[in-house]
Write a structure and sequence with these properties.
Layout lengths: L1 H8 L5 H15 L1 H36 L5 H50 L8 H45 L3 H45 L1 H9 L3 H53 L5 H43 L17 E8 L9 E8 L4 E5 L6 H9 L6 E6 L2 E2 L5 H5 L2 E4 L10 H6 L9 H8 L27 H14 L4 E5 L7 H14 L4 E5 L11 E6 L2 E6 L1 H7 L1 H11 L19
Parallel strand pairs: 3-8, 3-9, 6-7, 7-8
Antiparallel strand pairs: 1-2, 1-4, 4-5, 9-10
Helix pairs in contact: 2-3, 2-5, 2-9, 3-4, 3-5, 3-9, 4-5, 5-6, 5-9, 6-7, 6-8, 6-9, 8-9, 13-14, 16-17
Amino acid sequence: MRKDKKADERPKVSLLKVIMFGLKVNMSALPALYIGINIVSVFHGVSHGFATFMTQKFYDSVESVITGKGPLKYAFLMILALGATYIVKEVLNGVHNFMHDVVFTKLNGEMAKIIHGKMARIDPVCLEDTKLHDDINKAQEGAWTVSVILNIGITIFTFYIPYFAFMGIYLYYLKPQFILTIVLVFIPVLAGQLMRTGIIAKFEDKAAPIRREYEYYEKAIVDREYFKETRILGAFRFFVTRFLNSLGRLGKAEWEANRKTNLIELGMRGFTVLGYCGILYMLVKALLAGEISVGAFAAVFGSIGMLFAVMEEIIARHIGHIASNLGKAHNLIRFMELPERGGTESDPDFSAGIVVENVSFTYPNAECKSVDNVSFEIKAGETVAVVGENGAGKTTLVRLLLGLYKPTEGVVRVNGMDTSKVSNRSLFRNASGVFQKYQRYQMSLEENIRISEMTNSSDVRTAAEQAGVEVDSASFPDGYSTMLSREFDGVDLSIGQWQRIAIARGLYRVHNIIVLDEPTAAIDPIEESRVYKKFVDISKGKTAIIVTHRLGSTKIADRVIIMDKGKVAAIGSHDELMRECKLYRTMYNSQAEWYADKPMNNGADAITATG
C-alpha cells in the first residue's frame, strides 16, 4: 500500500507539458517535415468546411435553373467547382496521412533514443531500486503515447479547429442559433473524456510492476536461456501458474478501469444524442420559416453526418485516447525529470592509482552498509585481487573504485580527482571490465569482441588468443564471421567458450584500468591460471583488479584485499597474508583441500577434484 501512496503523491504532469515535450523533440529532430505537415493539415481542415459551402452553392445554382432565375451555364460551373473542391480535399487527405506516417515513425525512433540517452545519464546506483525498473517500463510504454498525444494535439489545432472555425462562421452566417447546438454537443462529451484521465493514470501505476512480473514469467517459459532447466526440473507448470496469476491480476485491474471509464462515456453520449436532435429541429424550423434557402438546408443537412462524425472522432476517439493514455505519457515525462549523475568532463587516469578514503556505501532502500568505512590505496600500475565470501562487498567495492557508484560517505580519488564529481562518460572512457553476468550477443564472433570499440584498430585475433578463444572449424565454421546464435542459423557455444569471448571483449577495449569480476567460473583452474597470467602480462603499466573466489589465482596479484562483512579485513601480498592473516589462510587452505587426493568414505579408490 505504501508504494501506491507514493505513486499518488508524485507531481502531476499537465497535458500542455506533454505536448510541449513532444513538440520540442519533433522540432529538433525533423523541423522542416513537421512544419510542412502542419501547413498541409490546416488546408486539409479548411477544405472540408469549404466543401460544405460549395455544396450549398451547387444546390442553389440547380434551384435557380429549375425556377428559371439563373442560367444553366452557372450550374455547370458550380458542378466543376464542387468536383475540384472534392479532388483537392482527397489529395490533401492522402498527402497528410502519408506525411503523418513518416513523422510518427521517425518520432518513435527519436523517443527511443531519448529514453536510452536518459538511462545512460541516470546514476547507475538507481538501477538497484526496483521502483526505477517500474519507471523504465512505464516510460517505454509512454514513449509512443507521447507521439500519439502530440499528433492528436497538433491535429486538433491545425485540422479540427480550422474545420470547426469555418463551419462555425458558415452556420452563424446562416443562423446564429446554430452555434449553440455545436457547443452543447461538444462540452459534455469533452468533460466525460477528461474524467477518464485520473482513472487510467492510477491503473498504469498499479499495472507497471504486474506487467514486468508476467513478462519475466513469460520469458522463463519460452526463452531458450531457460528452456533446458525448466523442462528438466519440471518447473514449466510452476512458471505457467505464476504467469497466469499475474496476467489475471493485470486483466482484473484493466477490467475495473475500463468499467469505470465506459460508464462515464455512456452517460455523456446521451447528451450528444440530444444535441443531434436539436440541430435537426432547428434546421427544419429555419427552412419552413424561410430563413435559409433549400441549397443551404441541403448542404447543412448533408454535412450534419460529417460534422458529428468529426466531433465524435475528436472527442470520443482522439480526446478519449488522450484521456486513456495521458497517464502513460505522464510516466515518460516523470522519467525524463529523474536526477542525473552529472559531473565535469575530464580525463581521469586510473593507471596513476586510486585512493580510497573512509568510504562507505548503502544501497537504495537498504539498512545495512555494503561497504563500511574502508581506506586504502592502489598504486600506479598495480594489480590487485579482491577476495572474500559471498556478500562480503567485493563487487560493490569494485563499482566504487570504478566510479560506477558514488560513495554514501567518504571519497574515491583517481589521479587526485573525486570520482563523484566526474561524469560517467569521462570515468568509463578508458575503463574495461569482464563481469560475472556477461552478455551473449547474438552476433558474429568478431562483433561480439569488437562491440565496445567498433572503430578500434586493434587486432581482434590478438584479443581472442590472449583470452584463450580457439577459433577452430569445429566450433566456428565461418571463423570470426560465425554467427553465435542458433536462432540466426549460427552455432551454440559452451559456457566456457562464452566466458573466453567475454574476456576477449574486455581485453580488446582500449583501457588504463580493467576489472575481472569472477568471469572464469566455468573455466577449469588450469585454464583460469593461464588466462590470469596472460592478463597480468597485458596489464603491465595499467591498473588491474581481479575479483575471484579461487584464492589460488591471487598469487599473480601484487596485493590482495580481503573483504569481510563490508570491511577490509587485511591487505597484503599472498605470502604476507598466508603468514599474518588467519582469515585468508583459512580460506586458502579450505580451497586447497579440494585439489588434493582424498580417499572415499567407503575405502574405494581415491579421486582427484579438478575444480
